[in-house]
Specification:
Layout lengths: L4 H10 L16 H28 L2 E7 L5 H15 L4 E7 L3 H9 L5 E5 L8 E16 L24 E5 L3 H13 L8 E5 L4 H6 L5 E6 L4 H8 L9 E2 L5 H7 L4 E5 L15 E13 L4 H19 L23 H7 L6 H30 L1 H23 L3 H24 L4 H27 L2 H15 L1
Helix pairs in contact: 2-11, 3-9, 9-10, 12-13, 12-14, 13-14
Length: 484
């Protein structure tokens, strides 16, 4: 039987119902429609959750990177990378934090003031630092200027070995204490007591002038093989056509074994140009690296994204800043001097996780949680409406009991009273349906009972109307007497 709420009201109106107050308007929502709306709301919630996760995962993330000193090549490289990341709208953006040097940058990372830092591999590495990339490799260059020719004076003995530096004055290019420590490591390897050597440091901008003014007997510089500062300092050592003498560090491998932050290396012939070539042959030396390191607590996905962007953008940055060509992937060996960050290792090994790989578990558990919440909510809603459902069932049974009573009624007043009670039952039933306490099937059953009641009332009303008034009064008196 097709349910029609309007027909229920129409039958009640034509049956002479006297409703107390206006009846509530019928709700257009059925139980199935409510389920559909709840399902749609759940789907929208799931879609919104996934969209929220995607938004927070894909929005630009700013990383603070400590680098210094001012006007150094490291600062220039970081500035070039920062601009490139911004112009390409990359997911990872950089915010440079300028420091006094590599040591200060390492301290900033250790104290949590930076997410990334440019540090020297031969300095103390923070415990919370892990390698992301090798920014550049540096070589130690030791050389002795040619002797000054003075008329009537025989030049002193020529320095050709590091062991001959004892008692000499050695100039160090750059103000950083790290270069002095490097010199001491080299001297100690050759049995030269650093306390018996006079060490003088020159700012990089003043090194060439200090060398021309013969401020020291030998010099040390540390930087990339193609370092402009080192090349200018060496060229300033040329006097009267004489070329400087480069001191080979033949014990480079021994130094590397005793100090893992250093590696045995070579300076290729002609690396510093000039005529004649400087040097005129390969020179053994030691090298160390400048690293880009990240906080250990930085997420793997963030570091992997930064590493991927770094090597993707390196080619375009090289055209503006050639030193970017020196950027290399980190050492992923377990015994590396600086352990590699898992995010950088994932990029190097081709195991970087995609968006779905990273968040599939969260999405799956989110769907499970929403499903469980929906089921629990539906059960709780049904539980809250249990009393209302039970009450409506008892009212429907009352309506069925009134059908035979209406057929035996002897007065129209009694029929009117039962009709009024049926109106109240109808109002309560429709409210239960609006609230979702009963389903369409229960409302259909109620409609059948209401039709039977209406038919019984209508038939009995016709019978009472055709019956003489005296018989109605006698019947009423008889019932009253029988009751008494």
């Amino acid at each position: 039987m097709k349910l029609d709420l309007k027909r229920l009201f129409a039958r009640s109106m034509t049956g002479g119902l006297d409703l107390v107050g206006p009846p509530p308007p019928p709700s257009p929502r059925s139980a199935k429609r409510q389920v559909m709306f709840i399902t749609l709301a759940g789907v929208l919630a799931i879609v919104g959750t996934i969209a929220g996760i995607y938004y927070f995962a894909m929005r630009p993330e700013i990383l603070r990177i400590a680098v210094g000193p001012a006007n150094s090549d490291d600062v220039k490289v970081v500035q070039a990378l920062t601009q490139a990341f911004t112009q390409t709208r990359s997911h990872i953006r950089l915010r440079p934090i300028q420091t006094d040097g590599a040591a200060a940058s390492a301290k900033a990372l250790e104290e949590g003031k930076a997410d990334l830092a440019i540090i020297r591999g031969d300095l103390d590495v923070p415990k919370n630092a892990q390698a992301v990339a090798t920014l550049r490799k540096n070589v130690a260059v030791l050389w002795v200027p040619p002797p000054i020719k003075v008329k009537g004076k025989k030049p002193g003995p020529k320095i050709t070995k590091i062991a001959q530096l004892a008692g000499r004055r050695i100039g160090v290019v750059g103000r950083t204490p790290a270069n002095v420590n490097l010199l001491k490591v080299i001297l100690q390897q050759y049995g030269v007591d650093p306390a018996k050597v006079e060490i003088v440091q020159f700012p990089a901008s003043e090194a060439a002038e200090a060398i021309r003014n013969q401020k020291a007997d030998a010099y040390l510089a540390a930087g990339p093989v193609n370092s402009k500062i080192t090349a200018e300092a060496i060229n300033a050592s040329t006097r009267d056509g004489g070329a400087p003498t480069f001191l080979a560090i033949d014990s480079a491998e021994a130094i590397a074994q005793n100090h893992p932050m250093y590696e045995a290396s070579e300076i290729p012939a002609g690396a510093f140009g000039g005529s004649p070539d400087k040097p005129d042959d390969e020179v053994k030396t030691i090298s160390f690296s400048h690293h880009i390191v990240a906080r250990k607590s930085l997420s793997d996905s963030t570091v992997a994204a930064f590493t991927r962007q770094l090597f993707a953008i390196r080619q375009s940055v090289m055209s503006e800043f050639p030193l970017a060509a020196k950027i290399e992937t980190p050492d992923t060996d377990k015994d590396a001097a600086i352990p590699v960050h898992p995010g950088a290792a994932a990029f190097v090994d081709g195991e970087e996780k995609s968006f779905l790989d990273r968040y599939s578990d969260y999405i799956w558990w989110g769907l499970m949680a929403l499903s469980a919440m929906g089921s629990a909510g539906a059960w709780f809603a049904g539980y809250l409406k249990k009393d209302e459902r039970n009450n409506n069932t008892s009212l429907r049974e009352r309506l069925l009991d009134m059908i035979p009573k209406a057929r035996r009624s002897e007065a129209t007043e009694e029929l009117d009273a039962m009709q009024a009670e049926a109106d109240d039952i109808l109002r309560d039933t429709l409210q239960c349906f609006d609230h979702g306490a009963i389903e369409e099937g229960a409302l259909t059953a109620f409609n059948i009972a209401l039709d039977q009641f209406h038919n019984a009332v209508a038939d009995r009303r016709v019978q009472l109307t055709s019956m003489p008034q005296n018989l109605q009064r006698a019947g009423a008196q008889f019932r009253a007497t029988g009751t008494m």
